[in-house]
């Protein structure tokens, strides 16, 4: 059975500059997928294509059996939500108002703001631990607090598919783990399908069921962390000499860089 979201031999790029060629990726349903790879390898480009923000120059992105670009934007937004790497909000907007904008796909001329919308916003504020910030202006918040607000807006959209581009950016380690635990709960207890670009390899291998490793616009390997992650994969993807040992808490792969071994810098 085909997964809900996939790319089929897509070419991706910006302003005539190619990033990926013939890229085919299937997002496993009801799983937490992490996309890893060095800077500028095409991770965010792939996520933008999966979310309909970037149109392939060849091939197609398929959502529920249809080319995603044949579906109305609002219909796509009821099925999947995207947390982009950078976001811009209007000046003078409060946290609650911004999170409420996640409910836009569920509004129409005949269906205005409802108790269900209020409940979704309240649940998103609670899940991200920012209820006490609801009436604060976004401009007054720290970078980490703002990141949690954007994540809350994404959660308020209440979609079955969540695409997250570096969601732990700006967060301290405690809030990173809290957020990753939330994502795992959304996946395992609520059946959400998640795809996240993550830079911390050990967090990716601890929390994700499925990993897509990229370099130079191509997929180098994909599968369960326990099946694909070893020192050779880390070297091929990142040019980094390392040892991969079992995480003492979870048993998942733990990457330990070797001292005194210069990296083969990805070019």
UniProtKB/TrEMBL annotation:
PROSITE patterns: ABC_TRANSPORTER_1 (PS00211), ABC_TRANSPORTER_2 (PS50893). InterPro entries: AAA+_ATPase (IPR003593), ABC_transporter-like_ATP-bd (IPR003439), ABC_transporter-like_CS (IPR017871), P-loop_NTPase (IPR027417), Siderophore_ABC-ATPase (IPR051535). It comes from Enemella evansiae. This is Uncharacterized protein. Keywords: ATP-binding, Cell membrane, Ion transport, Iron, Iron transport, Membrane, Nucleotide-binding, Transport. SMART domains: AAA. One of its GO terms (biological process) is iron ion transport. It is a peripheral membrane protein. It comes from the Bacteria. Coiled coil: none annotated. GO terms for cellular component: plasma membrane. The lineage of its organism: Bacteria, Bacillati, Actinomycetota, Actinomycetes, Propionibacteriales. It is found in: Cell membrane. Pfam families: ABC_tran (PF00005). Its main location: membrane. One of its GO terms (molecular function) is ATP hydrolysis activity.
């Amino acid at each position: 059975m085909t997964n809900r979201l996939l790319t089929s031999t897509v070419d991706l790029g910006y302003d005539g500059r190619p990033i990926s060629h013939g890229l085919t990726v299937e997002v496993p349903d009801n799983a937490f997928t992490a996309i890893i790879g060095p800077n500028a390898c095409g991770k965010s480009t792939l996520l933008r294509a999966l979310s309909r923000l970037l149109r392939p120059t060849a091939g197609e992105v398929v959502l529920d059996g249809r080319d995603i670009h044949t579906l109305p934007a609002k219909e796509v937004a009821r099925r999947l939500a995207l947390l982009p790497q950078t976001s811009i909000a209007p000046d003078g907007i409060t946290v609650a108002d911004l999170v409420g904008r996640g409910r836009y796909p569920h509004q129409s001329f005949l269906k205005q703001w409802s108790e269900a919308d209020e409940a979704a916003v309240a649940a998103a504020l609670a899940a991200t631990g920012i209820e006490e910030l609801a009436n604060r202006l976004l401009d007054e918040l720290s970078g980490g607090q703002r990141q949690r607000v954007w994540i809350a807006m994404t959660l308020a959209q209440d979609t079955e598919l969540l695409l997250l581009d570096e969601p732990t950016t700006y967060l301290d380690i405690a809030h990173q783990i809290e957020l990753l635990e939330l994502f795992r709960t959304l996946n395992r207890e609520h059946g959400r399908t998640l795809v996240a670009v993550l830079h911390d390899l050990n967090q990716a291998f601890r929390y994700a069921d499925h990993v897509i490793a990229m370099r130079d616009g191509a997929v180098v390997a994909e599968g369960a962390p326990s099946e694909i992650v070893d020192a050779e994969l880390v070297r091929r993807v990142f040019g980094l000499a390392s040892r991969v040992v079992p995480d003492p808490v979870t048993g998942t792969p733990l990457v330990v860089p070797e001292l005194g071994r210069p990296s083969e810098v990805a070019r």
